[in-house]
Every structure is written in structure tokens, then in C-alpha cells.
Amino acid sequence: MTTVLEIVTRGQGLYEFTAQLHPLATGDGVMTVFVRHTSCSLLIQENADADVQLDLAAFFERLVPPADDPSMGYLTHVLEGPDDMPAHIKASVLPVSLSIPVMDGRLMLGTWQGVYLFEHRTHPHRRQVVVTTG
Question: Quick check: pTM over 0.90?
Fold first, then answer.
């Protein structure tokens, strides 16, 4: 079964959507989660303390600052704004698909694990995530 979820973002940050995946888990197998965009990514990360998401976002902002930062002067793809090419760089080093084991209709995530869309662009977006189970 394949389903397309829409994740609405408000700009850069991590958006948990684990709750939307639980009803899609059936039987035994693997759930594949894939984001259909080149400027965001997917993560399985701690969902108990929101500071984890804030720290991850801050780390990647420091690792890959906006294109108008002097350290990013080497970039040539700048027509779509100072957040665009850095978003592509982040998405190239972070996963855009995940495989999650399913047993007895349950996602086999750990106690503190959640599934997140990591939005790398500054402005709000509607992101499509394709979920396949089987």
C-alpha cells in the first residue's frame, strides 16, 4: 500500500509526523518513507525533549549557513534566495528516505524515537512524503 502524506511546515525546523505513520503500519515487513523534495530531509530522532530538535537545527545552521554569509561566497546557485542552496546541501548529507521495520502492525521504533521532516527552507512549504508498506 502506498500513501502520500502532506506535511505543512512553517519554515526551518524539525516537524514530527510519527502519529501519521502508525495507522499505516500493517502486518510484518518494512515501511519506507520518502520525501519528494530536494530541500528538506527525513530523520529518526529523539522525541522526548524538544531541545534535541532545536540543537540539531542550530548545528546544521552553523554547519551550512545561508548563502549570504561571507563563508558561503563560493556558491553559484543563489537565484532562489540565500536559504535555497544551503537547503540542497543539507538534504544531500541527510537522508531523504527511511526504512522502518514493522512487526504485528507496529512500527519498531525505540522508546524515544520519532520520525521527522527536517525543513531546510526559511519559508513555509507543503511537503509530500510517500509512505509504502509491505
Answer: yes
